[in-house]
Write a structure and sequence with these properties.
Blueprint lengths: L3 H20 L7 H38 L8 H11 L1 H39 L4
Helix pairs in contact: 1-2, 1-4, 2-4
Length: about 130
């Protein structure tokens, strides 16, 4: 694995960019904006999956390095778990955050698809209505 600090910096940048993209407001009544956001989220989904894998790798590497250090061998398994959780809290934070972002992207994609389908159905119905 590359330098863990470098990878953590890369992860922080990815998580920030993903969070910014998710939080952008759109007009949900505008089909073009919905379609554009849907396409953006679909492209973002692979980046978020990569970031999730990177976060998990960083967290696991941190825990492994703490285990092999031998400094915590005299502690019970429960105590080590608590100590490791504190020492790896930054890696765990980004892992949990990107996991939530990944779920948010999936749910948003499904929501936007539903909205677009509804708009399409309404448009089709309006073609047959006379005033």
């Amino acid at each position: 694995m590359e330098n863990p600090e470098k990878n953590l910096e890369k992860l922080i940048i990815l998580v920030t960019q993903i969070g910014d993209a998710i939080s952008q407001e759109i007009d949900r009544d505008n089909p073009d904006e919905l379609l554009g956001k849907l396409q953006e989220l679909a492209a973002l989904q692979s980046t978020a999956s990569y970031a999730l894998a990177l976060a998990e790798q960083l967290y696991n590497a941190k825990i492994a390095s703490l285990l092999v250090s031998g400094l915590y061998i005299k502690y019970s398994a429960t105590d080590r778990k608590q100590i490791f959780a504190e020492l790896a809290k930054e890696e765990l934070f980004y892992y949990n955050l990107i996991e939530r972002f990944t779920k948010n992207i999936s749910y948003s994609i499904e929501s936007f698809r539903t909205m677009i389908s509804y708009m399409k159905m309404e448009f089709e119905k309006s073609k047959y209505q006379t005033t």
